[in-house]
């Protein structure tokens, strides 16, 4: 995605662009926090299933510990000139308890199946409650494109 300078996109355009990136990108910055250990941020591979982001990390990682203890998380796609931020609550699944369709889709996208590893992994599902998207200062106003889990401007390609 390229920045459009001072051109301000409508909500439907921001939504379309954000959804396209959620489908095509492979990395997301995951921000978690622990009441005693503070904030933690790490990039992880992710899969967008049309409703939620799926990630996978070692079952003993700081991210796994934090998501289990405090499920509120923030996710950010890695482009500061085309910002997409998601906020929601993490749902955690042990690698042998993850829904089959999600695990298969994750393995298909990355060519790696954590369920086949010797070590334990944790799948983390985040259905966004809020999504913000903007390209530069002209788009700061109106940057919220999802609120309370509902896209603000529905369109057929959003599903």
Q: How many DSSP-defined strands?
A: 8
Q: List low-pLDDT spans.
A: 155-159
CATH architecture: Roll
Mean pLDDT: 93
CATH top level label: Mainly Beta
Report the order of strands and helices. Answer: HEEEHEEHEEE
What's the end-to-end separation, in Å? 21 Å
Count of helical regions: 3
Instruction: Could you tell me the CATH topology label.
Output: Pnp Oxidase, Chain A
User: How does the helix and strand content classify structurally?
Assistant: alpha+beta
* Anisotropy-based shape: globular
The order of strands across the largest sheet is 1-2-3-6-5-4
The CATH H-level superfamily is Electron Transport, Fmn-binding Protein, Chain A
Main sheet characteristics: 6 strands, antiparallel, barrel
* Count of folded domains: 1
Q: Please, could you describe this protein's structure?
A:
Residues 24-134 form the Pyridoxamine 5'-phosphate oxidase N-terminal domain. This is Pyridoxamine 5'-phosphate oxidase family protein. Pfam families: PNPOx_N (PF01243). Keywords: Oxidoreductase. By secondary structure, the chain is of the alpha+beta class. 21% of the residues lie in helices and 39% in strands. It has helices spanning 11-24, 62-69, 100-110, and strands at residues 27-34, 38-48, 53-58, 72-76, 83-94, 121-134, 144-147, 150-151. A hairpin with a 2-residue loop joins strand 7 and strand 8 (150-151). The protein is globular, with a radius of gyration of 16 Å.
